[in-house]
Amino acid sequence: MKASETLIVIGREFGSGGRALGRELSKRLSVPFYDKELLHQAAKQFGISLPEFERNDERKPSVLRSMVESAFGMCPANSSNVNSDTLYALQSCVIEKLARQGGAVFVGRTADYVLRNNPRLLSIFVHCDEEGRARRIVKRGDCKTQEEALDMARRNDRLRQSYYNFYTGRQWGNAANYHLCIDLGKLGLQTAVDIVLHATFDLAQRIK
Questions:
Q1: Residue 71 and residue 41: Cα distance in Å, rounded?
Q2: Which CATH class is domain 3-206?
C-alpha cells in the first residue's frame, strides 16, 4: 500500500491544533482534507439543507433515539426537520464513500469509529495544555481573552465528548481508542507531523 492511501483520522481537543495538523498532513501526502467539508458533501449528496447538518455538527441528540432504519432511503429532499440520528447516519455514509476513493485526512465526526474496520486507518487524538489552547483560540480571533477562550474550549470539549461517546459507545480521548495520542503543545506542529508521517509510511509498508 502507498502512504498516500492511508486514512488518517484526527480527534482533537478544542483549540489543540488538530485541524492545523490535519491540513499539514494533507499537504505533505497530497490527499484530500475533510473537516466541515463533510457536512457540505453530505448535504449536497442527500438533498438536505446545510444548516441542518451545521446545527447537529458534533452534538449529541437531546433525547435518546434509536437509529432510523434504512436511513439512507428515508430522508426527504430539502427536509427542514431531519433528526440527529439520520444526519449522523448520512454523514457516516459519506465518510465511508470518501474512504473508498483513496487516502484522506478526516477531522472529527467519529470518523475513527466509522472506519474502525478499515485496515488503512490510522487514528490520532490531539491534545494540548489549556494555556496553549487558550492562546491559539485567541490568536485565531474566536475570543478576546484567555478566560473566554478557556470557557469556549471546555464547552466545546463537553459537546464533542458527549457526541462521540453517544454514537460510538467509546470514551472520547481515551488513549486505548486511538493508534497515536499527541501532545501538540509539547511537541509542536512540525514534530507532530513528522511522527504521524513516520507512522503512516510504516503502516503502508506492512499492508500488502
A1: 17
A2: alpha beta
Q: Is 40 left (phi over 0), alpha (psi -120 to 50) or beta?
A: alpha
> Residue 203's closest CA among 131, 135, 119, 114?
119
pTM equals 0.84
> Distance from first CA to last CA of the chain, Å, rounded?
6
Report the relative pairing of strands 180-183 and 33-34 from DSSP bridges. unpaired
**pLDDT tens-digit profile of 66-121?**
333 333 333 433 444 566 787 788 889 889 999 999 999 999 999 999 999 999 99
Cα separation, 124 vs 121, in Å, equals: 10
* Residue 14 CA: distances (Å) to CA of 1, 59, 107, 182: 32, 14, 12, 14
Closest by CA position to 91, among listed 53, 55, 62: 53
In contact, 21 and 106? CB cutoff 8 Å: no
Q: Which three cell numbers stand for residue 117?
A: 474496520
